[in-house]
Amino acid sequence: MEPSYRLIQSQANRSFVFKLEPFGLHTRWHYHPEIELIYFMEGRTSAVIGESFQEFEEGDLVLLGANFPHVLQESKEFVRLHPEIAPFGLIVQFTDTFLGNDFIQKPELKPIQTLLSKAKRGLKFHKSSVEKVSDSLHKMQYLNDTRKLISLLEVLAELAETAEFDYLTPKDYFYDHTQDEDRMVRVNEYVYKHFADTITIADVAKIANMTESSFCRYFKSRTLKHFTRFLNEVRVSHACKVLRNGQSVTDAFFESGFNNQSYFNQQFKKIQKMTPMDYQKWKLKGVNPIKPKEPSISSGTPLL
């Protein structure tokens, strides 16, 4: 079975993706151009990493390189024995250029360059290494965006200094992802550039060099969601940014590309599980009517 391309939707006003996410049975074998740091916080998780089967448990830490095929799912046996526990973890996704095209190439960051190169084979860190960064990983969810970024670099720097890890794939492991990725990247870039404008299926099908019906099937098979859902998520994510800046709900509606305010309100509540006004009160005043979890686009929890 071929892994599908996973479109990682960036979070508004962030250069990398940070989320707490359950590992559900619906997840498919996939890859994406983002490097992925996964910290398993609760439960036991089954995984296909490259071409091998793995089991991860609370306290495990894994770093996967760009375009590394993988899937994480809750362990059926663990769920059967512990139905009250939902396996979940902390996931950080970033490209090697998330701080600029040449930032990671600075001589001071040579150890991190080497670490990310090793991650092309997948890395599982030993407990002794995890203990050095576990406190930072737990605290990261409570930090503001600037301190999250600093903490991420500190964690990567700490991991870069250790040789205490195991490779998850053989030395010669390689997966050719280029053709599928190129098409999805073109679509992704187009949406993020034009989401405030009118975007039709015909527009993105043309970008992908496909018929409209073929594109719809292709996009759904690769991302497990309809294109309209993805577009609405991008627009709502931008609306969240506008609301966090203290602008009005009307501003958020106009600037995010929706052409009907009733539909905007409907989609915002569907994706965020709260109204635009409630979201703004939550972010600016700390009034949280539903106590949402840390955001995850794939799991339907609020987008920060």
TrEMBL record:
- What is the organism of origin for this protein? Runella slithyformis (strain ATCC 29530 / DSM 19594 / LMG 11500 / NCIMB 11436 / LSU 4)
**Domain HTH araC/xylS-type residue range list:** 185-282
The molecular function terms in GO held by this entry are: DNA-binding transcription factor activity; sequence-specific DNA binding
Q: Which Pfam families match?
A: HTH_18 (PF12833)
Q: Does the keyword Transcription apply?
A: yes
User: Does Transcription regulation count among this protein's keywords?
Assistant: yes
Q: What name has this protein been given in UniProt? A: Transcriptional regulator with cupin sensor, AraC family
Domain of life here?
Bacteria
